[in-house]
Structure to design on (543 residues):
């Protein structure tokens, strides 16, 4: 067996987060960056997201998923980054020892000076939303249906019911319709859509697909293949109302009921996770609780926009490069927790260790609010303030703070307040 | 005869419910918009709604069985379904270059349908 390789940085997962992080690490001065991907090509989920709507922030242009991926793939190929495709990481330890496998190298081990986690997220399934009924073929997650239709050329159903109005569910309602299937309706348990308004309009309204708010699926019928589902209205406590039950014949039930950061490897390495985001707790450099392990994109928290995934990836890649280049000469400072203030559910990053540069702060609100103002307070001083006509939980908000030179911080708070001028 | 049309504004999270009134195709007023962007959006949606169309076409001899394609510019909304139906009959041969024209001037719109990725 050959000696264990010690790359300066190993990036795990080559979707938009991994591509961006590997490039940023390379550009920040690391010569030995390795990018690992379990699929046969780079891009992660983007190759199956054939619709447009990507890149308006990063490229100031509206691109499809494959086009967005391609811009980064070309740069990665030119940058001299070592790419390992068809490669699965089997184990990652807290001392950064990685065990991986692929058909060419077999099982191999690495001891990189830094790691960037960019494994993305996975879909919540039927079992996580507990739908009673039989277990026939034809119950499929929206992202899996998207892969079937856009990559494999398979149709998962001809008469489809969609449960959940997340963006992927809305996008797939249109895609099924354009491919000749009938979408009977989209059912959403909450009293507001889960996805962006643009998708409600362009994917449902454009095709006269009904959106049933405050509704859920209460039973799946069919022994071998889905034959029908029972749908019902829910009350304020989200309990189905028996008298409103209705049987809807269909041959597929498509689920768009949320995404969960993919953190099996993070847990193995002892990376501290945040129960609110289900991803690693990170600081302003996207550094996790484990020394030398960074994280970015949807493995940290599920973002609405790929552009923001890219921005966190650049921060993580740069952070990993600095960490390696300054090895041993710099001590990690004790962190300050970023406070989620009024009407803020959570903030990424959760921690601020060194306030020596402009930082991005991503957050979601707890409840909708009109005429609001987002602000960032550092030791009582307002460093960021922006008006918003409306803030809603499904739409993540990005704020920032610029110290204007390194400064000490004892308290940093992100909050949403009523805007007196507007109100 | 006066007619009203309802739209949901997509320009900000406020999602204003817009009501456009017209007579014989002439816009009389837009109600419900909180700002000028919403006013303009309702007019565009009434007078000339356009959408970018994306779908897949079959590929012979490629690394994957399908190639994603996209219109190089938005086309009239009313033509989106016909465009997708037309493209569903098409088969192209690999390799395909990124941005390669797959179907020129779709449905007389002057807009090309292009490959949205390279496919070896």
């Amino acid at each position: 067996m050959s000696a264990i390789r010690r790359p300066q940085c190993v990036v795990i997962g080559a979707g938009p987060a991994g591509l961006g992080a590997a490039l940023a690490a390379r550009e920040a001065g690391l010569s030995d960056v390795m990018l690992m991907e379990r699929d046969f090509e780079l891009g992660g989920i983007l190759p199956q997201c054939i619709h447009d709507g990507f890149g308006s922030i990063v490229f100031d242009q509206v691109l499809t998923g494959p086009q967005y991926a391609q811009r980064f793939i070309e740069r990665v190929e030119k940058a001299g980054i070592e790419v390992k495709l068809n490669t699965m990481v089997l184990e990652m330890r807290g001392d950064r020892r990685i065990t991986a496998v692929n058909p060419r190298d077999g099982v191999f081990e690495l001891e990189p000076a830094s790691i960037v986690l960019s494994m993305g997220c996975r879909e919540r399934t039927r079992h996580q939303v507990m739908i009673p009924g039989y277990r026939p073929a034809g119950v499929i997650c929206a992202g899996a249906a998207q892969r079937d239709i856009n990559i494999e050329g398979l149709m998962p159903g001809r008469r489809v019911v969609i449960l959940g109005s997340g963006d992927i569910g809305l996008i797939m309602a249109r895609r099924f319709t354009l491919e000749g299937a009938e979408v009977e309706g989209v059912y959403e348990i909450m009293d507001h859509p889960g996805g962006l308004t643009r998708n409600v309009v362009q994917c449902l309204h454009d095709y006269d697909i009904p959106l049933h708010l405050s509704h859920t699926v209460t039973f799946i019928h069919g022994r071998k293949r889905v034959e029908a589902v029972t749908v019902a209205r829910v009350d304020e406590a989200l309990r189905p109302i028996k008298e409103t039950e209705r049987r809807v014949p269909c041959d597929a039930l498509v689920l768009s009921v949320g995404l969960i950061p993919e953190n099996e490897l993070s847990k193995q390495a002892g990376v501290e996770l945040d129960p609110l985001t289900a991803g690693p707790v990170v600081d302003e450099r996207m550094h996790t609780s484990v020394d030398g392990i960074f994280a970015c994109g949807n493995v940290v928290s599920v973002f609405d926009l790929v552009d923001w995934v890219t921005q966190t990836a650049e921060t993580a890649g740069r952070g990993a490069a600095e960490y390696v280049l300054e090895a041993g000469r710099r001590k990690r400072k004790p962190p300050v927790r970023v406070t989620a203030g009024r009407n803020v559910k959570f903030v990424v990053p959760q921690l601020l260790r060194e306030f020596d540069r402009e930082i991005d702060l991503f957050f979601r609100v707890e409840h909708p609010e009109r005429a609001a103002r987002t602000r960032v307070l550092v030791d009582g001083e307002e460093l960021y303030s922006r008006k918003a006509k409306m803030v809603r939980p499904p739409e993540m908000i990005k704020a920032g703070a610029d110290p204007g030179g390194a400064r000490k911080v004892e308290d940093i708070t992100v909050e949403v307040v009523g805007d007196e001028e507007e109100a | 005869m006066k007619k009203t049309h309802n739209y949901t504004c997509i320009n900000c999270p406020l999602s204003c419910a817009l009501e456009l009134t017209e007579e014989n195709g002439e816009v009389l007023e837009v109600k419900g918009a909180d700002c000028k962007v919403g006013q303009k959006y309702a007019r565009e949606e009434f007078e000339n709604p356009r959408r970018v169309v994306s779908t897949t076409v079959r590929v012979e001899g490629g690394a994957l069985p399908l190639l994603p394609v996209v219109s190089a510019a938005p086309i009239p909304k009313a033509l989106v379904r016909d465009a997708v139906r037309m493209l569903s009959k098409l088969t192209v041969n690999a390799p395909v270059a990124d941005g390669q024209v797959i179907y020129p001037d779709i449905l007389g719109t002057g807009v090309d349908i292009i490959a949205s990725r390279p496919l070896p």
